[in-house]
Amino acid sequence: MRHRVAGRQLCLDKDHRKAMLRNLAAGLFEHGQIQTTMQRAKAVQPLVERIITIAKQGTFRARRQIEQKLNDRNVHVWVADPNVKDWKKDNQYFDLPDAGDIKFNRYGETKKAPHLVQHVMTKIGPMFAERDGGYTRIVKLGKHRLGDGADLVLLQLVGKEEGPELGGGKSRRREQADRRTAFAAKLRKASESAKPAESKAEAAAAPEQTAAAESKPE
Questions:
Q1: Is the pTM of this model over 0.85?
Q2: CATH class entry, domain 14-73+115-167
């Protein structure tokens, strides 16, 4: 029995689970959002929040602490990859480096590229300087993973997302609320279009009433 045992095991041993969470956090910091299962997203959220809180300090000690929690590696190398499509190179979270800034040696190995820890310290930390916690959010996609049918979600950094939801099916309550809003807008538009017609009719009837009042004998 797992009484008083905190954390999610995710059916993995300690080393495998630690490596997986580090990779998920690194992917989130590099791309701004990742698609994963609900249980993995909830498991990696505390690690991501803790790293961002440390990065906001901006000190050398904070950098050393982040290096202990993340495996430092090159990021955004795919910007210079000709096999990656252009629409995949658009990122709404960060300003990506130019393809000319990424250098490779004659064997195709990365020679010069931004590093993950430096990226977290210089871009992600200042991005949340005015925010106290709650740096990530989970968006349900309404899809399931092939094989085990696990719920797929989108784990993303907050602040530059678009809209309350990015995907998935709408709930019944949301559909009813949208219909009510559309019906109210239709009634409002009809009432506003009826007001000018009434004012024109009143303006046209005013001279006739004046003439009729003048023609009455005293």
A1: no
A2: alpha beta
